[in-house]
Design a protein that fits this description.
Blueprint: H1 19-37, H2 44-51, H3 55-62, H4 65-90, H5 95-113, H6 116-124, H7 128-149, H8 160-178, H9 184-201
Helix pairs in contact: 1-2, 2-3, 4-5, 4-6, 4-7, 5-8, 5-9, 7-8, 8-9
Length: 203
């Protein structure tokens, strides 16, 4: 009777993730959880289970659920900013082209996150602390758009009220496109026209 040789091969240990890599893994897992079950299902304990880590690791990265929501919004903002910056740099110095890039970048980024972003935004507005964080990012986006559009506006620039109207239109159109109430192209075109009209009114 022969016996099978015993294997002496050792399991190769998995490479330990850096803090940044772990953060990226957790954010991706959080977006996936929100996509499947909605923002209400998002807790640090549930995130830890989904990512296959212990709770203390999740708490070490985000501290609280509010901290996680802020990190998700920051993640969304970073990608949105990078998308628009790259497109603006490559676009022609014409008002309609700049407006098209801003509109396309905003709509595309929200579409990429699908139903997740409305849930995160709603959760951010649920407390004064989180609403303040959201407001800061909104102001930063408005300031960026003002700088992009300034060369095509009148001497006084674009009124702050007009910029807030543009942001409201962008949110409304993007979320309507996510809900499939309107087409993505319709959302982009309408937002572009809104931006162009706003700039022309400032002259």
């Amino acid at each position: 009777m022969t016996t099978k040789p015993t294997s002496t091969a050792k399991a190769v240990p998995q490479r330990r993730l850096s803090r940044d890599e772990r953060q990226r893994q957790l954010l991706d897992a959080a977006w996936k959880l929100i996509s499947g079950e909605g923002t209400d299902a998002l807790t640090l304990g549930r995130l830890a289970a989904e990512a296959g880590i212990t709770k203390p690791v999740a708490y070490d990265h985000f501290g609280t659920r509010n901290g996680l929501l802020v990190a998700l919004y920051q993640d969304f903002d970073v990608r949105q900013t990078a998308l628009i910056d790259a497109a603006i740099a490559a676009s022609k110095p014409v008002l309609k082209e700049k407006a098209r890039v801003i509109a396309a970048g905003y709509i595309e980024c929200v579409m990429t996150q699908g139903r997740e972003i409305p849930g995160v935004l709603a959760a951010l507005g649920g407390s004064p602390e989180l609403a303040s964080v959201k407001h800061q990012y909104q102001l930063a986006f408005i300031k960026k758009c003002q700088a992009i559009l300034a060369p095509y506006a009148g001497p006084a620039g674009i009124a702050q009220a007009g910029m807030w109207a543009m942001l409201g239109a962008a949110d409304g159109l993007a979320h309507a496109a996510v809900a499939q109430d309107i087409g993505v192209e319709q959302a982009r075109d309408e937002l572009m026209q809104t931006i162009v009209a706003m700039v022309k009114r400032s002259k």
